[in-house]
Design goal:
Blueprint lengths: L13 E6 L6 E5 L4 E4 L5 H10 L7 E5 L5 H4 L2 H8 L3 E4 H6 L1 H4 L5 E4 L4 E4 L2 E7 L8 E6 L5 E5 L7 H7 L4 E5 L4 H6 L4 H8 L7 H14 L3 E5 L8 H15 L4 E4 L6 E4 L1
Parallel strand pairs: 3-4, 4-5, 5-6, 10-11, 11-12, 12-13
Antiparallel strand pairs: 1-2, 1-14, 2-3, 7-8, 8-9, 9-10
Helix pairs in contact: 1-3, 9-10
Amino acid sequence: MTSKQHADAGQQLRIAFLASGSRGNVVAVCSERDVLLVDAGLSARETRRRLAEALIDETRVRAILLTHEHSDHVAGVRVLSRQLDVPVLATEGTIRGAATHLASVQSVERVRPDEDMVLGELRVRAFRTSHDAAEPVGYVFEDGQGTRFGLASDTGHVPSQALEVLESCAIVGLESNHDVSMLRTGAYPRFLKERILSSTGHLSNDDAAVVLERLIEAGVRSVCALHLSEQNNTPGIVRETLQCCVDRSGARVQMSIARQNTAVTCSV
């Protein structure tokens, strides 16, 4: 597999959020023949178990793409890449930041934001996000039919260029990390609250709702809320907050919420 291969037409995209949260993140992007993993924050054993549970053939995995170097996104990458015998793709900043985890990885390829790559059946483009990491990115995946999935997690806000990219997608995974009131009145130390609330922290439910409103206007028809805080959020609050956007729009939008302990699948 190289970025010089050509994407072929395949079945509709299927996205499996195998884990999402501060204890580990893995997303499987599936076409008819190929699977790309985004992040490897679980152990290799647990990732492979969840792939099997989601009925995804691990022999179809072609690469692991990293969004950034924080441990809940890279902790299992060394072992997983070796066991699946696949390359790891990441930005130069992430490669430097995750040097310890990538030290014995056989094949590490550099991702350049805003440049297209073709990986098997899927066309992929990284876009810049806003997080306290070396060079964080989200990704857009496009299948041979032109259906796009955009992933934006771990970002304190959604930059305008990232929003433009996400508006072209039919399916979006969007961070909805915390309820601001719960965070402000919760037990976290002040420095951690300030980090999360900053423009390089994590997207709140209210901020996610603002972004979602724009995405619905642009034609997004399936959204999955990501990276919910177990201390400062609840699925019920997230669903209520985001559903208001859907109801106001009058559009038919499939909404789901990614979990830490079980896989959640979506498609269009």
